[in-house]
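Example S7 (structure tokens).
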């Protein structure tokens, strides 16, 4: 795996070729639920704006959310900010150098901690993100149900057993990167490119002719649906909209959003009587979250600023929107204007 990574792995991603834990941590958190191609631009904007952990800790949560806007899974951004503050306050701005301590920081799970510790410090610890889980279960023919904690633990043990044992300082970063690269570029979920795989001769799943049967996981996500009416209140001059911060916990917690209602009647109640006839329903659309489909119904109204002042929220001028943490569909609605 080490030799293969050197020859065939990825070497040009903006968070590679460094042992700076700040950059590795940032990229790992961004990559948790997001594709590499999307992360690249966000990563570059983040490190330009916040070149180190102290700069990130000094910033406001609003700045971080604004820059994160559109990347989704916003709890990652909140934890990122909390973690930066903790590293500065309790670790004097230096990330701890071992996986166990790293995993005690906000938003850093076992696999992310192992990625940082192995890539930056050469620690002999295994990562087990979705890509690596797929590679390992296929190579080992590991058919236990990963919905069970005991099976996950067995896979962690097997992953640890396979790690390099010598010259860890050089071998561990290369091995960890190689496993990630193999999962991302060769051992693909649907059509693995087994002919290009360096471990083909040892791979049980390939021998069985059924790579797609792995990994085994019985529990399926329970999806739900929610209908939401969004009040798109615009000032008569059309240069400002009324936004409220979403409560935490909940969907889009901490982000700025158009006022959100469970029914159109509830939305109407919020609008002054004189302007209810001016409400205009916009085309509804569905926004897909991990566990939920949101059916969004924007309803637009134009009214003078002084006529509208619900308890929560503020008018925000158009030039402030780019810096605000806004859910992607809300940003899309505003940009239609
Ligand atoms: Fe994946 Fe195929 Fe390689 Fe096995 S041989 S690890 S299934 S790419």
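Recovered sequence:
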């Amino acid at each position: 795996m080490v030799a293969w990574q050197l020859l065939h792995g990825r070497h040009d991603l903006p968070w590679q070729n460094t042992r700076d834990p700040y950059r590795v941590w940032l990229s790992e958190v961004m990559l948790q639920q997001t594709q590499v191609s999307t992360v690249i631009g966000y990563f570059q904007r983040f490190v330009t704006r916040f070149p180190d952990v102290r700069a990130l800790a000094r910033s406001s949560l609003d700045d971080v959310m604004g820059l994160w806007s559109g990347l989704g899974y916003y709890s990652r951004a909140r934890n990122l900010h909390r973690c930066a503050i903790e590293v500065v306050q309790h670790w004097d701005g230096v990330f701890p150098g071992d996986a166990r301590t790293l995993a005690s920081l906000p938003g850093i799970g076992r696999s992310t901690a192992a990625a940082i510790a192995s890539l930056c410090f050469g620690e002999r610890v295994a990562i087990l993100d979705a890509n690596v889980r797929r590679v390992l279960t296929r190579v080992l023919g590991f058919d236990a149900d990963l919905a069970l904690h005991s099976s996950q633990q067995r896979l962690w043990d097997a992953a640890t057993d396979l790690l390099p044992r010598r010259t860890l300082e050089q071998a561990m970063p290369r091995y960890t990167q190689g496993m990630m690269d193999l999962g991302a570029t060769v051992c693909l979920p649907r059509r693995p490119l087994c002919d290009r795989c360096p471990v083909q001769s040892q791979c049980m799943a390939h021998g069985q002719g059924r790579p797609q049967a792995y990994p085994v996981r019985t529990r399926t996500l329970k999806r739900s649906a929610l209908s939401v009416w969004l009040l798109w209140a615009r000032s008569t001059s059309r240069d400002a909209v009324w936004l409220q911060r979403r409560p935490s916990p909940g969907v889009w917690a901490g982000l700025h959003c158009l006022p959100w209602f469970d029914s159109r009647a509830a939305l109407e109640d919020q609008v002054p009587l004189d302007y209810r006839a001016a409400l205009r329903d916009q085309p509804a659309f569905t926004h897909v979250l991990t566990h939920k489909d949101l059916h969004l119904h924007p309803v637009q109204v134009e009214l003078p600023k002084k006529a509208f002042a619900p308890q929560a929220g503020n008018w925000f001028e158009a030039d402030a929107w780019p810096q605000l943490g806004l859910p992607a569909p809300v940003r899309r609605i505003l940009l239609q204007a």
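Notes on this example. Residues 318 and 335 are 9 Å apart (CA to CA).
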